[in-house]
Design brief:
- The structure is a homodimer of 361-residue chains.
- By secondary structure, chain A is α/β, with parallel strands linked by helices.
- Chain A folds into three domains: 54 residues, 434 Repressor (Amino-terminal Domain) (Orthogonal Bundle), CATH 1.10.260; 133 residues, Rossmann fold (3-Layer(aba) Sandwich), CATH 3.40.50.2300; 132 residues, 3-Layer(aba) Sandwich (Rossmann fold), CATH 3.40.50.2300.
- The first copy, chain A, contains twelve helices and twelve strands.
- In chain A, the strands form three sheets. The first copy, chain A, has a six-stranded parallel sheet, sandwiched between helices. Chain A has a four-stranded parallel sheet with strand order 7-6-8-9, with helices on both faces. In chain A, strands 10-12 form a two-stranded antiparallel ribbon.
- In chain A, α1 crosses α2, α2 packs across α3 and α8 runs parallel beside α9.
- β2 of chain A pairs antiparallel with β2 of chain B.
- The structure holds a DNA duplex (16 and 16 nucleotides).
DNA sequence: TTGAAAGCGCTACCAA
DNA sequence: TTGGTAGCGCTTTCAA
């Protein structure tokens, strides 16, 4: 690599080779050892093993040499020699969704605490793609694979995925699923069904009787569970949601907006409240309502799910179901690190928060 | 690890050892070769090299063996043998901030397209921590290191970081900085200064004369540039921002909220508009105003920066400066992959969007 | 078209 | 407390 076009006044030493293609070789442990005048084994002990049984003088020499050569251990080489990496893999479906990014925040925090590096992959496409990603990730031999928001349900590839994960686990890896509680792996199980059911009760308690529902594709377990919980909750009061007031849409702000717009276009009828399976969707829907000339909280009440930060930044503040997403991430990582023999399920409970978007009727 | 709780009827061979700790060995290329009855070299050629010069029959055998053994190439081993990985490292400061997660979205998308795996590290603490993270990342020998939102400015560790990055680059790695345009590396340079300056002009154009500013620590380059651009823009009209109406706070929703609360507590005086250095902060401030009984857009106008999605979900919709964050991510990755000799700077222009949070006066 | 074998950078065992 | 050395799983010459 050349270095044209930069008047580099910084501390950086100049290029050594004129040759454009030639890169300086990274210093290896061998180099360090030679420079320090000790064996490679000793250098290894100083830099990565237990410093204990090396003479002080040699420790110093090695350290000095390493600093001088700007040595960085080759993690792949270490991984291969040690037979284990310090990597954890995280699979999400969309980083820019607050739901996933909050979980990811928790995961990375816990990983850092455990000295692990997180590798993140995004599945935005098909289940096939997810399978492929898991295969690739497996190739990194991470300590753990954490799968969140997977559309594992009811697809042909489901069995293949499960087998892939199982093979990984048999080889000593640790698998954690977030919100997928019927598979034989560690699972952080968010109480989507229960929370939604509670939400239904609470809303009925406020005086609502006629509902519309905005949900995502049924293959998305999270959406389905929330939907079912809500519908079951209403059924306790002999309330049904009319088919024409159920909107299936993309699991995103855009999807929520589209659903809201559609609902507004079609006419609210006597619908009093629309509940979306996520805050992100609910917020999108609220904006769609406003754009259609409806005032959320007055003309139509709105409720969401997750209680993401922005829920209190919109007007009116959004009624939701609190899910401690960051903690979900922490939990997932902990589960991943506990080498439990049994597949454990850690339940995460959820909690209804009533706000101004659903005023008492 | 045990395997309780699942009746595994799959093709997976049974445990070899009764020992709970013992894991089944992952199949290696050697195993595949043996099973297929060919040499390891041939197996390698089929599975990873050019399939071309291997007899059809052997190709089939190897493929079959690989499938049967559920073989996954050991990426670390490949990395070490090939002398190169297919990894890219991304350093952000906070995943759950829409700013970073949007950029991260772009980066991962571009990485995927290029067949790279993204490793993500979060720097939420000190610059020292950042240096340490970069060192670790370097150990993975990624093809590229993308640094975004780094608080590289004016710290003691700055030189150390630069040297670290330079050493990495000398060894053939590719470094990309987002929004740090005075360092000798590839840079995606968001026009923070210009955008802020335009914003100032536009707001003055709307009739505003008295401003408050909510900003983050001056060491954060992004915040500083936006601030300076804004102040310079006002100066064109001989408008100054009083010192007591400048609030320094955390670069987050929380920080924005705190600043807004403080401003409300202190009293607006004759302040007409508060501009925050990011939408996230602006939105936090808006909520603080509301909580203090002020109506944003009526009692106090508000403007932000970035034009993140939620900007149009709040009421009133937030005036902002559009930054194509996803594209910034894409760009960064492209820059990383182009093995350009010269350190290139790709400018990203920004654009003022006036919305209801800053009504004409 | 194939296989033997020499590494890649590192760790860890064993003997000194 | 040290150094020699045998791998770790893979790629890639080089001969056959």
């Amino acid at each position: 690599m050349h270095n044209l076009g930069m008047e580099d006044g910084s501390a950086a030493p100049p290029r050594r080779h004129g040759d454009a293609a030639s890169a300086e070789r990274q210093a290896t442990l061998h180099d360090v050892a030679r420079t320090a005048g000790v064996s490679q084994a000793t250098a290894s002990r100083v830099l990565n093993g237990s410093t204990r049984n090396v003479r002080q003088e040699n420790v110093a020499r090695v350290l000095a040499a390493a600093a001088e050569l700007n040595y960085t251990p080759h993690l792949s080489a270490q991984a291969i020699a040690r037979g284990a990496t310090n990597t954890a893999a995280l699979v999400v479906s969309g980083v820019d969704d607050p739901y996933f990014s909050s979980i990811a925040g928790g995961v990375t925090q816990a990983a850092e605490a455990a000295g692990l590096i997180v590798t993140m992959a995004v599945v935005d496409r098909s289940p096939e793609r997810e399978l492929q990603i898991v295969r690739t990730l497996r190739g990194m031999r991470p300590r753990a694979i954490i799968l969140t928001g997977s559309r594992i349900d009811g697809t042909d590839t489901r069995d293949a995925l499960v087998e892939e994960l199982d093979a990984y686990r048999r080889a000593g890896g640790s698998v954690v699923l977030v919100s997928q509680y019927d598979l034989p792996f560690h699972t952080v199980s968010i109480d989507n069904y229960g929370g939604a059911r509670q939400l239904a009760r609470a809303l009925v308690g406020l005086g609502y009787r006629r509902f519309a529902v905005v949900r995502a594709h049924a293959a998305l377990r999270t959406s389905r569970d929330r939907c079912e919980g809500f519908v079951d909750g209403l059924r306790e009061f002999n309330i049904d949601v009319e088919e024409r007031f159920v909107f299936e849409s993309e699991f995103s702000r855009r999807g929520g907006y589209a659903a809201g717009r559609e609902l507004a276009r079609q006419g609210l009828g006597d619908t009093e409240l629309v509940v979306a399976v996520s805050d992100v969707m609910a917020i999108g829907a609220m904006t769609a309502f406003r754009d259609a000339g409806l005032v959320p909280g007055r003309d139509i009440a709105v409720a969401g799910f997750d209680d993401i930060g922005p829920a209190v930044d919109v007007v009116p503040e959004l009624t939701s179901v609190t899910v401690p997403l960051r903690q979900v991430g922490l939990c997932a990582m902990e589960l991943a690190l506990s080498d439990d023999d049994v597949s454990r399920v850690v339940p995460i409970s959820t909690n209804v928060v009533l706000r101004d978007s659903t005023p008492r009727r």
